[in-house]
Task: structure prediction
Amino acid sequence: MKLKIIIVLILSVINCKAQGFPKKEPMKIFDIEKFDKNKNHRKEYADTLYNGTIIKQREREREYIEIIKYEDKHIEDFNSYHKNGKLKIQGYFLENDFYKGIWKEYDEQGNLIKETDYDKGFDYTWEDLLKLLKKREVDIKDTGNTTIRKDEGEWWVYYVEGLYIYNIRIDGKTGKILLDDKDLFEEGS
Result:
């Protein structure tokens, strides 16, 4: 009888795991000791990994900031940490203020307190936009001449090519191009 009870308990634990009960993700922790050992006089530290990934960290009055740039991706990881080293904010962005995906915010104990989905309402995805910009040979990493953002349910893209400034607006739901303008670039504009 005891053997049957043990077998039933083991099978129910296995069944619970198979049903996909959510696993708690391990919390990212900022390595304060390593940062303090390597930071410069401006309270910044940068490291380049063997695969070309660049990790930039800096200390602010109330937090630590970490930006991870991947060699083969346009989107960068953004992490901010409380002064105790626990994760504060985690998200993804493009250098010119375009936020992507779900951004998560945590309290000082590491409890999730807020999620913001920056892709909500946009069926025409970042990947769809990348395909269009690749066809047009737009250098999105040239953030001095290219701006991408989401506003009022639309993608807004501005870029400079030669003597022209291009202005594109795309419906975030349908992907329909609503505006495709080309103006002569004037100094100071």
Remarks:
- The longest strand covers residues 98-106.
